[in-house]
Amino acid sequence: MLKINDLFVSVEEKEILKGVSLEVNKGEVHAIMGPNGSGKSTLANVIAGKDGYEVTSGEIIYEGKDLLDMDPEERAREGVFLAFQYPVEIPGVSNATFLKTALNEIRKYRGEAELDSREFLQYMREKMKLIGIDESMLSRSVNQGFSGGEKKRNEIFQLQMLQPKLAVLDETDSGLDIDALKIVANGVNTFRSADNAVIVVTHYQRLLNYIIPDFVHVLVDGKIARSGGKELALELEEKGYEWVKEGEAV
Amino acid sequence: MENIIEKYLTQFRESTESLNGNSVSGIHKLRTNAIEKFHELGFPTTKNEDWKYTNVSVLNNFHFRKSPVQNLDKSLAEKYKIPGLDAELIVIVNGIFSHELSEISSQPDGVVIGSLKSAENDLLNAHLGKYSEINNGFTALNTALAGDGVLIYVPDNTVLKKTVHIIYLSGDDNLNALVQPRNLIIAGENSRLNIIETYHSIYGNETLLNSVTEIKCGRNSGVKLYRLQSENNQTFHINLTEAHLEEACNYSHYSVTLGGRLVRNDTNIVLDAENSTGNLYGLYLTEENQHVDNHTLIDHRKPHCQSNELYKGILSGKSHGVFNGKVFVRKDAQKTNAYQSNKAILLSDDAKIDTKPQLEIFADDVKCSHGAAIGQLDEQALFYLRSRGIDEANARKILLRAFANDVFEKIEDEVIHNWLNEIVTERLK
To answer: Lower CB density within 10 Å: C or N end of chain B?
Structure first.
């Protein structure tokens, strides 16, 4: 589904990613872990198409197409979804209007019929129940006045609504208490299927107790220093990132 | 320059016979004083502090004059009607009340919805020119030369059920039209009145529309005035709307400016007695070479009054916006609450705004605040929307509409709200 080949990315002339390669197949969950400043969020943002990141070499192939050649909206319509580390507040745009517009643009692109207000509401209510979102949130402006936890929960709600093929979760666990963490994890787990894939970007192992990854990669200083199975996350938790860095130096 | 002024003086001499009010009436005196004042003042220059950012010298390039009465097809006004709005319809063609195109239902005793020209002299003598001070050449010229306009008189304890919709159609194919409507709106004690004015162009020649509207709100009255300026890029639109509020009134003014090459709105509210509220809400969208200047004045003269002011602008191209918001809180006006906010988004490097909040407070027990913010479209929000599959153009539109939202929220009338929303959203494309 996703193939990242020897990717180099700079931000304001500073090299952040220094040759990342990663392959993600349908049905897989990959965790990308790493210390602060290792380039985890850069990788997530480059996949989503955010401005300000210069790909100096390498490529990202998504479903056989050149992902870097697409606008952010095109990527979204093709099934790429980023759950933001810092979801943006948009005063004056209601959650419901925002989601209906987004969902129908994506459906249109896929050649599916747009949902009318009634159908949309019905579909939305199903998903709201799943994520434990209160109906009052929908008439509120996007993320405005939401707590940190509500914002993250709203990201997963959007994931459920839009049903992408590839979901990238950028530090979705940060700022969540244990109850919220379980709800968010449950939202991701019910999304998981043999037809889609998830990349979980996280600093801590704790989210991975609930979203069990198939593969764990450790990003250090812009490179994947180590890859392994889910047990690698536990080992990291125990030994710390210094352990990987030392290992790399040897 | 002298030459140009002389042309208007000549128009005055030629028209005195045809204007209402014979030569002995008070109105005639008002007009004579006004033309003298115009002779003295001329059009303002940028040396005048109130006109510092709005250069009207371009007006000297044209010989604006009264347009002969035109017989317009009824269908022309039809397309400017507001769908679903149950309204008394007044159509003003080049400043002159059109009895053919207007549609006014029969009114309860004492209510007057009609032409200023055919108004009773007693009423005019009592009110005309009493609320708008002549402090620049435009007001002087209007007072001297206005041939007609709208008179609305709502007696005490009367609620006007329908909104009054005034459609202004301006422009002349054969000359540079001088369009000078003069309106007088009197709301009696405990009365209720809603008015919407919409301004449109019917021909492409340069046109000077110079209008003055005086509003008197009687004790405990409620008046709402909506204005939509939607003229073409050949129109110079100068307007003064001044409302005087008696005790316990509620006056709200909503202004949406979309068209015109040069627009200057002077919008004044005088809180002349206790416990009244004045609201001023404005939205302006400018593009290309448009120039839009909103000058507001809220004059708190008496205690326990409240004013709310919110203006928002979206500027693109090489357009230029001006916001000057004066709030006076006089020595007597204790316990005043006055809030002012103006925000603008600049969509291009060449768009420009001059903004000047101006609070002058002489009372010591008041709550006043003002804020101004100028920015660009929020790039983070734009990316957020796009990352969910919404294309860039649509995402921009959504964000700009959202920026304007807190002005729309103030429009309680559902039909007018939805109608304006549609027009503004269309323009955001």
So the answer is: C
